[in-house]
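Hello,

Our lab assistant flagged a job as stuck in the queue for most of the afternoon. It eventually completed. Since we weren't sure the result was trustworthy after the delay, we are filing this so someone can double-check. Below is the sequence as submitted and the structure that was eventually returned. Let us know if re-running is recommended.
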Amino acid sequence: MSAGNQQERLDALWIVGFVDGEGCFHVGINRQPAMSVGWQVLPEFRLVQHQRDEQILDKVKEYFGFGRVVVNHGDRKEWRVRRLQDLQVLCAFFRKHPLRTKKQFDFELFDRVLDMMQRKDHLTNGGLDTIAKLARQMNTKVNPKYLESSETIRRKHSS
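-- returned structure --
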């Protein structure tokens, strides 16, 4: 199928299938001393393609009306969504149109993290602990640096 035919078929079900294969829900937790708990929660969604298929990413961006198409790495591009309001719209879309692979599990965890952020739970140590544990279960199960930090470990042992 040519890229032109793919563009013509861009609808909710097509997007679900595309994201099942190429999308990534990710929650980063980075040290940020200016934040109340010293860490910042950074949820994002990425959809990666070789640069030759950048027009598909542009079409997905056009479909939703937000996000940015940027360089991912080398000859790959990504449609990236980081704004909390946009991520909430994206989550509403995937609640209405569920994913069909293991990515649905990642999405459900991601959606829980966004809900916690809406309630400002990420601004407490307990909420941050929960978010870090949810993030650890997503994708390749990489431990967030937050869970491995000395102050987090000390706090847990002193509780």
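-- support follow-up --
The delay was a queue issue, not a problem with the job. The result is valid. The longest strand covers residues 39-50. Residues 67 and 81 are 5 Å apart (CA to CA).
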